[in-house]
Design a protein that fits this description.
CATH topology of the largest domain: Sulfite Reductase Hemoprotein, domain 1
Number of strands: 19
Strand order of the largest sheet: 1-2-5-4-13
Strand content: 15-25%
Largest sheet: 5 strands, antiparallel
Number of helices: 8
CATH class of the largest domain: Alpha Beta
């Protein structure tokens, strides 16, 4: 990758480069594909309890944040020890969204190995260290859920593209929602995705993301990428997801095991609850919709998890308002916010009518944490009120 430097400093927070928020330092822990081991979750929970505000904050990219950090060095040491920040130089570029149910429920194929290969390739490429912390990769297992979010560079796996059942995986390479060609085999797919990022730096050195480009520059990027690929083979990459949303409740995996999906109030996972989730000793996935998936459970374990963790605040009801609403931190945690968004949203959920569509509440026009898909934005105004608009 040949990624020229941008004129402005990348202020996206990481583990080693935290953000000085009004409520203290903020660290963002990248979880490629939203995946985390139980032992890693336990380490983060203890770090949040001992050195932050006692919560793990779920992000719109399936990552985790620690807020109000009092000892940045101690948190960084804990994250590194857990293997969640394997490279200080590449900490902020490991932005990879992955179909949350892949390999367990539906999909053309298990896309988890492809996401792991992309993460390995990014960390092995010295030039990738200069990639924008905002640039987003996507791996869609063919159901359309990640492609619909329009990552900057996305691989969409395609069915029926190989004459042999066990033939090589084939994927369309999609740039910001536009399929520009296809690649065959994990190595070629990973190379193509990284080439999109390198191409962005070539055609527009100052751009953070594909959506920053004007029409002519974007076309140059698409043509540059397409020149190295086979023709696209799939249908509309923005087709509706084959699996319903939200992923909240009890689900049967293809292998007969059980997957539990849950949410928490305000997208904030209390450290104590996170420790109990880790104690289940099951794989955990955090989705871009701020859902928490506990995977590969037996029926008996799943029943125990619901019985024990639901009273502690883990919400397994898809009809809960917290499956449809989210928010930024608001005041006083953010100096830019015009209102205490969390408090106001809590009141709205407890006293108002249940939302009939996705809502995201924000304290200012920056719209931090907003969903990629269409939603109702409820934005605080300087006069203390809120304005609703569709985005």
């Amino acid at each position: 990758m040949n990624q020229p430097a941008r004129a402005a400093t990348d202020r996206c927070p990481g583990v080693f480069d935290t953000h000085p928020a009004a409520d203290g330092a903020l660290a963002r822990v990248r979880l490629p594909g939203g995946r985390i081991r139980p032992d890693q979750l336990e380490v983060l929970a203890k770090a949040a309890a001992e050195h932050a505000d006692g919560h793990l904050e779920l992000t719109v990219r399936g990552n985790l944040q620690l807020r109000g950090i009092t000892d940045v060095e101690a948190v960084a040491e804990a994250v590194v020890a857990a293997g969640l920040a394997p490279s200080s130089t590449h900490d902020k570029v490991r932005n990879i969204e992955l179909s949350p149910l892949t390999g367990r429920i539906g999909g053309v194929a298990d896309a988890r190995p492809l996401a792991a290969a992309l993460d390995d390739a990014l960390r092995a490429d010295p030039a990738a260290a200069s990639l924008s912390g905002r640039f987003l990769f996507g791996i869609d297992d063919g159901r359309g859920d990640i492609a619909a979010r329009r990552p900057d560079a996305c691989a969409v796996l395609r069915a029926g593209t190989s004459p042999a059942v066990d033939g090589p995986v084939v994927a369309d390479i999609v740039i910001g929602g536009v399929a520009v060609g296809s690649a065959t085999g994990p190595e070629a797919i990973v190379r193509a995705l990284i080439a999109v990022a390198a191409g962005l730096g070539e055609v527009a050195p100052g751009a953070w993301r594909v959506r920053d480009l004007d029409a002519d520059t974007r076309l140059r990027l698409e043509e540059l990428t397409a020149s190295t690929l086979d023709p696209a083979i799939g249908d509309d990459p923005d087709a509706p997801p084959a699996f319903r949303e939200p992923i909240v409740g009890w689900f049967d995996q293809d292998d007969g095991a059980v997957l539990l999906g849950a949410v928490v109030e305000l997208g904030r996972l209390p450290a104590r609850l996170a420790e109990f989730i880790a104690a289940v000793q099951a794989p955990v996935v955090f989705t871009p919709d701020r859902e928490i998936l506990l995977c590969d459970l037996s029926e008996g374990v799943a029943e125990t998890v619901v019985r024990v963790l639901a009273p502690m605040g883990l919400i397994f009801d898809a009809a809960s308002p917290w499956a449809s609403v989210s928010c930024c931190v608001g005041a006083p945690g953010c100096s830019s916010a015009h209102a205490p968004v969390r408090e106001d949203l809590l009141q709205r959920v407890r006293e108002g009518d249940p939302p009939d569509e996705r809502e995201h509440w924000v304290g200012c026009a920056r719209g931090c944490g907003s969903p990629a898909q269409s939603h109702v934005s409820v934005e605080a105004t300087p006069d203390g009120g809120y304005e609703r608009r569709r985005r």
